[in-house]
């Protein structure tokens, strides 16, 4: 079998039904869907997504990132995404391998294998698509095949994950990964501010305070934040608020007014306007349609 067929076979067996599965491989999840899905909010943390079968679209602001077995997706910072499976069926389900990016290993590899020609000056984007390489696919296949030999996981999985990160580091996503691993890079500075906004999005989150945490002037922070996230800091905070409000209404059964208040809105009408602008329907109607 070809490498992609082996990857598909292993994922089908170890993700036997629709859902997201935590695997015995540290930092590795298996995802399966036998149907296409509506756009749903999710926060992507620094991760690598490799699709064995099917296709998915991730919307970051107004930009669409479509990935499939030929292209992998890499998130370098925490980002609020609208994700939807756009190609899947019962016979050919969507199958995805998700690998967390280990900053400690990335930092070690970046120091040991410095970038030829010096560091990239431009701030790396938060979300990237790149063509799958044979070497990266081969290492991913060897990683998931360890699921069939669980006694080998402790000894071999760390080595194979390290190889995957090395393949990414020397490939087209290398400059972004090096910025992730470098504490003083613009990407790392923005990442610190993003983590603070995620922890405090229910509050006012003054831009001046976020810029201070990033160690930048307000104007520089705004420009670099938009380079990384495709959104302004305030748009980013609003998206986090609205995604959490949707979760509260659909998952916890809160009414629209309570959900809006819970995520930091003092005005129900402002919450309703922002929600309808993002999701296309007023909050109560939209949550009701998702609950079925």
From TrEMBL:
PROSITE patterns: HTH_ARAC_FAMILY_2. One of its GO terms (molecular function) is sequence-specific DNA binding. Pfam families: AraC_N, HTH_18. The keyword Transcription regulation applies. Keywords: Transcription, Transcription regulation. Residues 191-289 form the HTH araC/xylS-type domain. It comes from the Bacteria. The keyword Transport does not apply. PANTHER family: ARAC-FAMILY TRANSCRIPTIONAL REGULATOR (PTHR43436), TRANSCRIPTIONAL REGULATORY PROTEIN (PTHR43436:SF1). This is AraC family transcriptional regulator. It comes from Hyphomonas polymorpha PS728. The lineage of its organism: Bacteria, Pseudomonadati, Pseudomonadota, Alphaproteobacteria, Hyphomonadales.
